[in-house]
Design brief:
The protein has 604 residues and is an alpha+beta fold. Helices cover 24% and strands 22% of the residues. It starts with 6 loop residues before the first helix and ends in a 66-residue tail after the last helix.
């Protein structure tokens, strides 16, 4: 087995700063400065998505920012050469031998990399294998480093040369059963080291080993114990956008994204026809005439800032304006959607759905922008990155960002905003919304430093319905549940704009999966799938415990209402909120309430 991962995996969860367990070692993926491309690869790996690029240029302050696919490895029968560098991390190991203590427990020798010879450790005259230690120290800002075991064991600076050991007092791996000791008699339970109130690791020194040596930065927050293989060791910060047709409202944004290239020919504007033959101007200016391009360029040069609409606003506009199907022939391009004839889906339980759109062709672009540890940093409910969150940097100097594109198909449902408004006014919905808000406030109190915002009752209802629909559709459409993804639109529900509500379920991948037509056919039978989804939400195998869960109860799943793995939770790769903000009581009647659900009165 070669030490390799897929290109898409790098963007989704194994980017710079991620720790990866390979068959024979543990490594940390290096920063973007240490990734290499040939000239041919660089051109072939370039990705264009003007809407995303304009946002990222504003975020990073880099006008020449590029989006690229991760480089491919050179694989042949005689060689394997990767273009993505990885550094060995951590630098501490334990010997792969078990010795009995006097108390009958197993212990293993703690070893630093300097003590290793040819990948082995000489113990009692015998070369033994080594295992990377599973404990490191880190901070929520992404900084990470090895633990100074000498200081940790002895409670302060020490020059004790005696051997150090790990002792397992049980088989569960629980931190309370793991003890690190020194032959001088000093010892410490790892559960004590994990106690944040003790501050066993002192303040973070800003170490960024993925960016190379001497790349520390000022930090100053307390370091914490981190198990390097734990799920909270790396949270990729990503932003995704669906490629949609160009619109007049976003022309300035698209022109601003290629302003550097336009500035180079400003005095010879006739050369624009040549510039259009290559990327990024080819796709960035598609659909705009030369006159529109230069008019927009001059407007921006006069100091008029481009209006950057929220990602989901633009997507909703394109999806909701889809025309009726014209026939079997579909135009070429990255996006094509058609409105399904209401005669195919009108029924009692679909009365509050105003439009069903079949998305025959779509392209989704996902960009890795940074990462955090301990606490996730995902996009907000509008698809935008949180400006208050400062993720760890992917490079010493950001000049480009890793991205991946996928193509597929989808189903879009638009809901009647007036019906949603009437539902929100119900006393039982107001009460439930307050309980969900109280649960979120409790969660926020327990997660100091989090900038997350409450999703709102309309979003939680639509998000819950989206999960139920994904499960129902996956049983028949031919795609696994993990291959379906969602985009939930709860726009203007805060009263700042006219309210618009919708759900896009789509599947997209790098290969043929996602373009097989199964989801489109499922869309033609959407009323049947909606009925199955609503029926499945009426009763959970964990009821009444699931239905009666109070989100405002401390110490519980405070971002959930009636939601568990038995009814509504989906694969996290499918969910845009990492399985948070879910409550089926807002969708249908449950054993806990008969008046709260948006589809209240639905009967099997």
């Amino acid at each position: 087995m070669k030490d390799q991962i897929r290109q898409s995996q790098i963007v989704m969860g194994f980017g710079p700063g991620a720790m990866v367990d390979l068959p024979n070692s543990s490594v940390m993926v290096a920063g973007l400065d240490d990734w290499t491309y040939t000239n041919e690869e660089r051109a072939a790996c370039a990705l264009q998505e003007p809407r995303l690029l304009s946002r990222l240029i504003a975020r990073f302050g880099q006008p020449n920012l590029e989006l690229r696919r991760p480089p491919k490895a050179c694989v042949s029968s005689s060689e394997f050469e990767s273009s993505v560098t990885a550094w060995r991390f951590p630098r501490w190991f334990v010997a792969a031998t078990d010795e009995r203590t006097k108390d009958g427990y197993f212990r293993r020798r703690l070893i630093h990399r300097r003590e290793i010879v040819n990948g082995k450790f000489v113990h009692n005259g015998k070369a033994v294998s080594i295992i990377p230690i599973r404990f490191v120290r880190a901070c929520p800002r992404g900084h990470i480093d090895d633990i100074d075991w000498q200081i940790l064991i002895h409670g302060g600076p020490s020059a004790c040369p005696a051997p150090k050991w790990f002792i397992e007092h049980g088989n569960s791996g629980d931190l309370a059963e793991v003890e690190v000791t020194c032959d001088c008699g000093s010892k410490l339970r790892m559960s004590e080291a994990a106690d944040r109130s003790r501050r066993s690791f002192g303040m973070c020194d800003g170490a960024r080993p993925w960016l190379g040596p001497r790349t520390r930065e000022t930090c100053g927050v307390p370091s914490q114990l981190l198990i390097r293989s734990a799920s909270n060791a790396y949270f990729a910060e990503r932003i995704t956008a669906i490629s949609i047709p160009a619109s007049t409202a976003e022309s300035d944004t698209r022109i601003a994204a290629v302003a550097t290239q336009l500035r180079a020919i400003e005095t010879e504007r006739a050369l624009l026809r040549v510039l259009r033959l290559q990327e990024p101007t080819k796709s960035g200016l598609a659909g705009l005439s030369d006159e529109e391009v230069w008019t927009g360029f001059d407007r921006l040069g006069a100091g008029v800032s481009p209006v950057i609409r929220p990602v989901k606003d633009e997507e909703f506009g394109a999806l909701s304006s889809a025309e009726a199907e014209l026939g079997a022939d579909m135009p070429e391009g990255d996006f094509f959607a058609s409105r399904l004839d209401p005669a195919n889906w009108t029924c009692d339980w679909m009365k509050d759905v105003t439009r069903v759109v079949l998305v025959h062709r779509l392209r989704a672009v996902t960009v890795l922008t940074g990462f955090t540890r301990f606490e996730s940093s995902s996009t907000d409910i509008h698809g935008e990155l949180d400006k208050d969150v400062k993720p760890a940097s992917l490079a010493r100097d950001i000049k480009w960002l890793p991205a991946t594109e996928t193509r597929g198909e989808g189903i879009f449902l638009e809901f009647n905003s007036e019906a949603v408004g009437r539902w929100l006014a119900r006393p039982s919905v107001v009460t439930r919304g307050n309980a969900l808000r109280a649960g979120f406030d409790g969660w926020l109190h327990d997660h100091e430093g989090s900038h997350r915002e409450f999703a709102g009752t309309p979003y939680i209802m639509l998000h819950s319905l989206s999960h139920l629909l994904m499960t129902a559709i996956s049983l028949e459409c031919g795609y696994a549940a993990a291959s379906l993804q969602e985009r939930v639109y709860a726009l203007g529900s805060d009263g700042t704009k006219p309210a618009r509500y919708g759900i896009l379920l789509y599947t997209a991948s790098n290969d043929a999966q996602g373009t097989l037509g199964g989801l489109i056919e499922a869309g033609r039978s959407i009323k049947r799938h909606m009925r199955v989804a609503l029926e499945s939400a009426l009763l959970c195998s964990n009821d009444p415990v699931c239905a009666q869960h109070a989100p405002n109860t401390p110490g519980t799943a405070q971002l959930h209402g009636a939601a568990c793995h038995g009814c509504i939770l989906a694969p996290e790769t499918s969910c845009e909120q990492r399985n948070d903000f879910l409550d089926r009581e807002l969708v249908v009647q449950t054993v806990n309430s008969n008046t709260t659900g948006f589809f209240n009165g639905f009967e099997t």
